[in-house]
Design a protein that fits this description.
The protein has 4 helices and 24 strands. The protein is mainly beta.
């Protein structure tokens, strides 16, 4: 009988130990997958959670585990930016207007929680890297070349387990001042905190690039309009232009919006009450086409086409990522899920011009 009692007590202790281990698992393993806003709120749960979330090592791990796009920064010309979260309860930043920066800025690019901004008030057009979730920021040194007023900018940042201090690059494509119809590239590297002009020059007359950069496998893509795309690989230091595939019922001058959908380059267009998504293949290969230094452009093949029906007409697609497609009807923004094809209203945009930029955002605690 004594043995029976001891066995029962042992089982009770075992169950209690399992319960305690589950709490440890949630604290040590599950919290790192949550966005920054939720983590700031969960600091009030208990002292252990507060210490865990406040540690630099936790912020380093969270920047690697929480990499999903959870919203977009929307900005009209001459106005401060505005964050449009996909879920306002879990995602957010303390200062969505980025007023913690020393001057008004325009958000030019983003990558895994970091934003690349350019000053909109001063004549120098300084570059800034910031994390809106932590209000940390850094002003970049002045570039070597004059990028002009129509610079295309891309921020490249991939969180690494081995690099406690984040390493990132800023790639600028600008019209050459020395070669007619030439496009040059200058790259900032955070490792040595300096700019370097790339050896690559694309000899092709390009339209001013105003679209947001889309990075897939460290290759940068900018939409040039009229179905053309500029692609640049900073590792191989190679660039080229190609045509987007066109869907049935579209003219050759119809623009398609580029996006990163589950690690692949995609093109999105809308027609009537339908949204068409094409995932493209062979976006950047090791071999350049024969007319690489000429005026031709390579045509890209469609991998597959999906038709997502939206219940409203006259919509305008403004952003696409792995989570879904953001479209605008009037001043109302909505999210179309690529998983279950449901729609969700996000926000009503009041005021501002019709020309707005949309930059993806990851709610990360990464430190600069």
């Amino acid at each position: 009988m004594d043995r029976g009692k001891k066995k029962g007590n042992f089982l009770g202790m075992t169950n209690n130990k399992i319960y305690m281990d589950l709490k440890d698992i949630i604290r040590e393993c599950a919290l790192v997958y949550l966005p920054a806003k939720s983590l700031m709120r969960f600091k009030s749960v208990c002292r252990d959670w507060k210490l865990q979330i406040s540690s630099p090592f936790f912020a380093h791990n969270q920047s690697q585990c929480s990499c999903a796009v959870v919203g977009v920064f929307c900005q009209s010309s001459g106005e401060p930016p505005l964050l449009v979260p996909f879920d306002a309860k879990s995602c957010g930043v303390p200062d969505p207007h980025l007023s913690f920066l020393p001057e008004p800025v325009e958000i030019r690019s983003s990558s895994n929680g970091l934003l690349c901004c350019q000053s909109s008030s001063s004549a120098q057009k300084s570059y800034y890297i910031c994390n809106p979730a932590t209000k940390q920021w850094k002003k970049l040194p002045k570039p070597n070349a004059d990028h002009g007023s129509s610079t295309a900018i891309a921020l490249l940042f991939e969180p690494s387990l081995l690099n406690f201090i984040p390493e990132y690059k800023v790639v600028c494509a600008f019209r050459s001042n020395d070669f007619e119809d030439g496009t040059e590239f200058e790259i900032y590297n955070s490792v040595d905190n300096s700019w370097k002009i790339a050896g690559e020059i694309l000899f092709k007359r390009l339209r001013p690039i105003t679209s947001t950069a889309v990075c897939v496998n460290n290759v940068i893509h900018w939409s040039l309009g009229a179905g053309h795309v500029l692609s640049y690989d900073p590792v191989k230091d190679r660039s080229k232009c190609f045509f987007q595939p066109h869907h049935h019922g579209y003219h050759s001058d119809c623009n398609g919006l580029l996006g990163n959908v589950n690690g692949e380059l995609a093109s999105v267009r809308s027609n009537g009450n339908s949204i068409y998504l094409s995932v493209m293949e062979d976006a950047h290969t090791n071999a350049m086409p024969m007319d690489y230094y000429g005026y031709g452009a390579q045509r890209l093949n469609k991998k597959n086409v999906s038709d997502y029906v939206v219940s409203v007409a006259h919509q305008k697609v403004v952003f696409v990522c792995g989570e879904g497609v953001v479209f605008q009807v009037g001043d109302k923004l909505s999210l179309l899920s690529l998983r279950d094809h449901t729609t969700k209203e996000l926000m009503n945009l009041v005021g501002g011009s019709e020309k707005r930029s949309f930059v993806p955002y990851v709610n990360s605690l990464v430190s600069i």
